Amino acid sequence: MHRSPSDGPHAVVSCGSLRWSLTPGETLTFGRGADHALRIGHSPQDLRIPRFAGKLECRADGVLVHNMSDKRTLVVQTFPGPGYDILPLMIAGTHPHPQVKVVVTGDAGTYAITVDTRRLGPRTAEPDDQAPERDRDRETVGFDRIESMSRRHRILLSALCLPMLTRSGQRANVPTYAELEGILDAHGHPFKAKTIRNGLDELRSWLTYEHGVEGLLGESAADAGGPSGGYVQALARWAVLSGNVTDLDLDHLEASGRPEPSADGPGR
Predict the structure, then answer these.
(1) Which of 83, 85, 100 minimizes the C-alpha distance to 14?
(2) What CATH number was assigned to the domain covering residues 11-116?
(3) Domain range summary for the chain, segments of one domain joined by +
């Protein structure tokens, strides 16, 4: 596993618990073959995954995705969508999307590679002294991973984002409360729809008032018509773009039982 550098422009590539950093000019190849740094579809053998499925080429303004297969199509999911396909032996770029997911579908399952280019743009040592303080704050506030988030809230947030991060096309939607109930129950968390709704309401208020995340208030669950409403879509988009739900969080969604409440934090 490669760790991201502490400074300098770079893109971050992740697949499950594995993580790489790419600086402009560097490449990362992926596929079933043993000669790739990022291997997918090899354990167990998934013959639908090409030996050389693709290559990620880091540029100063984004990442080029090369489809190296002459038969299989790569699907690129964007946040927000819609995504796009990269046909065999074709190339497409991530720009202007700050984060995308490259999806390779095999017989045994779907393999997803996340490409995050937010650290790739030009960086300055000091903010512009002439810029208003509130405008400088607005550029970054709320778009960092919040480690103090309770385990219960992280579970609800991960379930909310799971279809977006693991599916493509119209199926990569924000689930309804009933669908969330099914997702959570399948992963060992038997929350009821009302509990899920209350938990997400509590979470968006906590994020807004305690961490300054904008755009999560203004609609009640009833007014928004459930998770398909605007505020929940905004919550899911924020969670993905800010790194508060990642492939690793989806791996952790599986649990043996429901977490116990605690006074350490909201919903912990």
Answers:
(1) 100
(2) 2.60.200.20
(3) 11-116, 140-252
To which residue do tokens 């970054």 refer?
140
Q: What is the DSSP string of 87-127?
A: -TT-EEE-TT-SEEEEEEE-SS-EEEEEEE-TTSS---SS-
Residue 245: its pLDDT value, please?
Answer: 87
Residues paired with residue 6 on neighbouring β-strands, in sequence order: none
Do 40 and 15 form a contact (C-beta atoms < 8 A)? yes
Mean pLDDT per 10-residue section of the chain, whose length is 268 residues: 62 90 95 93 90 94 92 86 84 88 88 91 43 36 74 93 76 85 92 92 91 73 46 83 82 62 45
Residue type, position 203, single letter: L
Instruction: List, in sequence order, every beta strand (DSSP E) within the chain.
Output: 11-15, 18-22, 27-31, 38-39, 54-59, 62-67, 74-78, 84-86, 91-93, 99-105, 110-116
Phi-psi region of 223 (alpha: psi -120 to 50; beta: other; left: phi over 0): alpha
